[in-house]
């Protein structure tokens, strides 16, 4: 049996990693709506999959660290690494997580400024908005912080790093006690203005609640941890679907 020339190997790896087709809403990501999985091109991820490793930096607040799950291994960033690693093998996937309860966009921007040059990620997933909405912090300042941070990233990394913003998780309590829609709207504006993308965790989780798939707030106390684990796993699957959608539409970055 003849072996492919070494120069062909990155292309063969990329072809295998992108041998993927979007699934129907009923059989992907725990029933997430297909329209929520459609990402714009991700040049950084596409380029990474043409080689041998994919580096992802996650920054956010409580849900990146535990969020009521059975432990760190059950959180959506950890599950995302496992789900993606299985999908894109033999490409290796490394997910670095920097998050802490109560942190805001300003805190995250400082982390990104420190860690992105060191890690040189192909993808940054920035989960934010919940703390700002709960505290009633100025929504315009949050949006400005996002736009400035993404602009700095693009000035250094260009198309080598894709940025995805993740909005708040769906919560009846948060909706009833904060003007969460304003924060979601401004995140959408900030994403469009900065060249980032928005992954709407709020819309996806609301769909799961409305279709009786996953409802953490109404889960019996004895089942809440198990439901939280399932929720984080489903979010990881949905995010993986979103990333693969963007990679499939991607292209190699310009020099």
Automatic annotation (TrEMBL):
Keyword Hydrolase assigned: yes
Domain of life: Bacteria
Keyword DNA-binding: no
Pfam family, one: NonGDSL
Keyword tags: Hydrolase, Signal
TM region positions: none
Ranges in coiled-coil conformation: none
GO MF annotation terms: hydrolase activity
Signal sequence annotation: 1-25
Family matches, as InterPro entries: NonGDSL, SGNH_hydro_sf
Protein name listed in UniProt: SGNH/GDSL hydrolase family protein
């Amino acid at each position: 049996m003849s072996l492919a020339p070494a120069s062909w190997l990155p292309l063969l790896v990329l072809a295998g990693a992108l041998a993927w087709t979007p699934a129907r809403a009923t059989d992907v990501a725990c029933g997430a709506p297909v329209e929520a999985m459609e990402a714009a091109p991700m040049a950084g991820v596409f380029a990474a999959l043409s080689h041998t490793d994919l580096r992802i930096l996650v920054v956010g607040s409580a849900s990146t660290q535990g969020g009521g799950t059975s432990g760190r291994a059950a959180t959506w960033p950890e599950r995302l690494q496992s789900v993606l690693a299985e999908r894109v093998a033999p490409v290796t996937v490394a997910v670095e997580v920097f998050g802490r309860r109560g942190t805001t966009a300003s805190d995250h921007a400082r982390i990104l400024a420190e860690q992105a040059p060191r890690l040189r990620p192909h993808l940054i997933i920035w989960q934010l908005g919940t703390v700002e909405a709960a505290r009633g912090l100025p929504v315009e300042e949050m949006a400005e912080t996002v736009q400035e941070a993404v602009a700095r990233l693009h000035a250094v990394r260009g198309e080598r790093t894709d940025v995805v913003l993740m909005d708040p998780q769906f919560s009846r309590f948060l909706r009833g006690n904060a003007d969460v829609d304003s924060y979601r709207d401004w995140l959408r504006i900030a994403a469009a203005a900065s060249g980032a993308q928005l992954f709407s965790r709020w819309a996806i989780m609301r769909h799961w609640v409305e279709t009786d798939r996953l409802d953490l707030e109404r889960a019996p106390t004895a089942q809440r941890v198990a439901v939280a684990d399932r929720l984080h796993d489903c979010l990881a699957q949905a995010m993986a679907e979103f990333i693969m959608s963007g990679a499939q539409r991607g292209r190699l970055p310009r020099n």
